[in-house]
């Protein structure tokens, strides 16, 4: 499949909203129509071809030569694929409904914010509020899979409702705060206030956290049959978690947060 490639003509002086540049809108467009797309650049609107050199025709596969000031990449996308060579800004894959986004570098805050479906692969680090909701809302990510090869910031999965967030590095504070359902798995270390006000859902940790909140009850060690099935479900994705389905079966279970509904669980591999 021929890709439609966007390369910045010069260093950005302001942040730019590239949400209009998604396969849903561009797949059947001619190159001059794509160049005429208006993008919010700071406090004004500019044509896409003022900022980017555009190569290729309309396609379901887009490539951005990345920059940390590219915000809203793939917002609301329902099909196709976006590849970002380098970093991306905030709100990557916000309200994503389908398709796939891959970032070779790192991203800023609110990646996968209110995401509904699809796949996001971040090979670097991610900022705060991965899979969370916008401020004032109470419905975070509701489906799909997010894979982070590096570290993630604070408040990952805040108000998470469904779907999976797989972190192969470390995660910050308030991991899984106010979760309603869904799964978060972390191979590295986690910060303070783990599972704060968690209602339901599962946080799966490969390492014992430094501190388990007193509002979580220690339920002892168990062999849980659903864990290999859960991990096997990630086969075909670029994640180390899919390789653990034969080895990670026995866990120590903590139930809570008793300050909330208390139906969530933190599972720690033993």
UniProtKB/TrEMBL annotation:
Per the UniProt entry, what are the Gene Ontology biological process annotations, in alphabetical order? methanogenesis
Glutamate synthase alpha subunit C-terminal domain spans which residues? 72-208
Q: Which GO terms describe its molecular function?
A: formylmethanofuran dehydrogenase activity; transition metal ion binding
Q: The organism sits in which domain of life?
A: Bacteria
SUPFAM superfamilies for this protein: Alpha subunit of glutamate synthase, C-terminal domain
Q: Which PANTHER family match?
A: TUNGSTEN FORMYLMETHANOFURAN DEHYDROGENASE, SUBUNIT C (FWDC) (PTHR39673), TUNGSTEN-CONTAINING FORMYLMETHANOFURAN DEHYDROGENASE 2 SUBUNIT C (PTHR39673:SF5)
Q: What is this protein called?
A: Putative formylmethanofurane dehydrogenase subunit
Q: What is the lineage of its organism?
A: Bacteria, Pseudomonadati, Pseudomonadota, Gammaproteobacteria, Methylococcales
């Amino acid at each position: 499949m021929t890709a439609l490639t966007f390369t910045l003509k010069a260093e950005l002086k302001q942040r730019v909203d590239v949400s209009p540049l998604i396969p849903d809108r561009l797949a059947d467009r001619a190159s001059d129509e794509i160049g005429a797309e208006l993008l919010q650049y700071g406090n004004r609107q500019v044509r896409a071809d003022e900022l980017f050199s555009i190569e290729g025709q309309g396609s379901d596969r887009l490539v951005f030569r990345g920059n940390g000031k590219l915000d809203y990449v793939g917002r609301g996308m329902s099909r196709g694929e976006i590849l970002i060579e380098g970093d991306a800004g905030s709100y990557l894959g916000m309200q994503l409904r389908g398709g796939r986004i891959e970032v070779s570098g790192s991203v800023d805050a609110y990646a996968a914010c209110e995401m509904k479906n699809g796949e996001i692969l971040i090979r670097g680090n991610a900022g705060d509020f991965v899979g969370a909701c916008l401020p004032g809302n109470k419905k975070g990510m509701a489906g799909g899979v997010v894979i982070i090869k590096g570290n993630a910031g604070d408040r990952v999965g805040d108000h998470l409702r469904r779907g999976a967030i797989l972190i192969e590095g470390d995660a910050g504070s308030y991991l899984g705060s106010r979760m309603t359902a869904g799964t978060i798995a972390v191979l590295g270390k986690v910060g303070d206030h783990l599972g704060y006000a968690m209602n339901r859902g599962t946080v799966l940790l490969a390492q014992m956290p430094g501190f388990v909140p007193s509002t979580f009850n220690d339920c002892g060690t168990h062999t849980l049959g659903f864990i290999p099935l859960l991990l096997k479900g990630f086969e075909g994705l670029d994640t180390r978690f899919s390789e653990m389905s034969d080895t990670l079966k026995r866990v120590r279970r903590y139930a809570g947060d008793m300050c909330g509904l208390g139906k969530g669980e933190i599972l720690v591999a033993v």
